[in-house]
Automatic annotation (TrEMBL):
Top-level EC class as recorded in UniProt: transferase
Upper lineage: Bacteria, Bacillati, Bacillota, Clostridia, Eubacteriales
Protein name: tRNA-2-methylthio-N(6)-dimethylallyladenosine synthase
The keyword tRNA processing is annotated on this UniProt entry: yes
Organism: Clostridium lapidicellarium
Record: residues binding [4Fe-4S] cluster 1: C28, C64, C98
Subcellular localization: Cytoplasm
Record-listed [4Fe-4S] cluster 2 binding positions: C174, C178, C181
Record PANTHER family: CDK5 REGULATORY SUBUNIT-ASSOCIATED PROTEIN 1, MITOCHONDRIAL TRNA METHYLTHIOTRANSFERASE CDK5RAP1
Protein task: Catalyzes the methylthiolation of N6-(dimethylallyl)adenosine (i(6)A), leading to the formation of 2-methylthio-N6-(dimethylallyl)adenosine (ms(2)i(6)A) at position 37 in tRNAs that read codons beginning with uridine.
Domain of life where this protein originates: Bacteria
Amino acid sequence: MQEFTADKQKCCNKNKIQKTFFIETWGCQMNEEDSEKLSGMLKKMGYEEAKNKYHADLIILNTCCVRENAELKVYGHLGALKNLKKRNPELIIALCGCMMQQKHMAENIMKKFPFVDMIFGTYNAYKFPQYLNEVCQNRSSVVEIQNSESGIVEGVPVDRESTIKAFVTIMYGCNNFCTYCIVPYVRGRERSRSPLNIENEIKNLVSKGCREVTLLGQNVNSYGKDLDPEVKFSELLERINNIEGLERIRFMTSHPKDLTDDVIDAVAKCDKVCEQIHLPVQSGSTNILKKMNRNYSREQYLSLIYKIKEKIPGAAITTDIMVGFPGESEKDFEDTLNLVREVGYDSAFTFIYSRRRGTPADKFEEQIPEDIKHERFNRLVKIVNESSARKNRAYEGRTEEILVEGLSKNDSTRLMGRTRTGKLVNFQGDVNSIGELIKVKISKAHSFSLLGKQIQ
Ligand code: SAH
Ligand code: SF4
Ligand code: F3S
């Protein structure tokens, strides 16, 4: 473990009264967290957040490469930034994140978009202040992609969006190498943070008004296997459950092959751990799961689901599903649809398989034609939406505990918050209850949210 040191951060904004930055983030919470850290470091260096990219002195694109469309968005943005840079040659443009962690990508970007000032990957993001100083002082570009991950760097300043709830990363990287997935190549092997550092971070958040934490990792169920002595994820849940002032604990992502009974029991037992499990299935066909290297069968997945339903009554179950994996037959796909019907998911992230260079599945024969992938995707989305709507309808008339997060996004006369099961609720209520746990009577269910009224 390394400790982030503040003395390396020299500010290069001497010549201007107030320099500003704008960060565009794609991808998952791992990237979100990295952006919060970049923002934290920049604020320590005296920068302020710009309202939009047109007014910023520094623009950072934090990229994702999990699917091709994530990469295409970055290219689109870079095209537009070229004009901004022409108008303001002082503008600094930086690229980081998972897409940049691939050396060939970084080289390609420098070739196609030579106006980019700085590129770094996920392994060395904590060195960003040093790179920024180099660019400012020498006005030359910095491209640095580290080949192997650093240990864990603690103490990097984090600039979090909400004070009421926070994401807390408990482990980095992934050891699973699902054959379609690029994440292990761009985020490295599993590294767990010490339970003490996690607890201290959460206690500090709670002292600033945080009531809910979501513990993050690509596979939180293998948390602590690399620590000496080993710490089980269920033990970590129990320790965090004892933190005074914290009200709710969530976690993601669970891998079906590692979700053990002790974790399910801990969720059932710990009063602060919410009844919500995100359990990506990817496919309902054992044949495809094998080719994906997921290490569980359809039957094993379903028996896990039944165990969860039995031990954690009313738990919301959500998932990730992919269609069009190489070799997926119509029968395999129908197995997925049937599994979705059988489980009755509260919601699901649905994806079209995207070939990723360097992953085994990219070289598999029997790649599925695009039109079939899209047709299957549309059929899947329909079934998933029906399932979500059915699950949401069951909330009508119920009274739910809500953690009030703020004003509704689309209607500022209403408040918004979530149930313990993670359902988004818009409701009429008292503005003074923001940050509080209250009771809301649910009057109506929509496909992706619920409507209600505060009763206490
Ligand atoms: N660690 C988590 C999530 C990782 S990425 C897990 O194992 O579940 C989030 C989701 O993106 C995955 O669950 C998967 O459904 C999807 N995904 C990953 N690689 C993909 C690819 N090449 N094409 C399409 N979807 C992909
Ligand atoms: Fe990717 Fe699989 Fe790791 Fe998830 S568990 S990040 S899908 S390799
Ligand atoms: Fe996340 Fe995308 Fe990287 S999904 S881990 S930001 S490749």
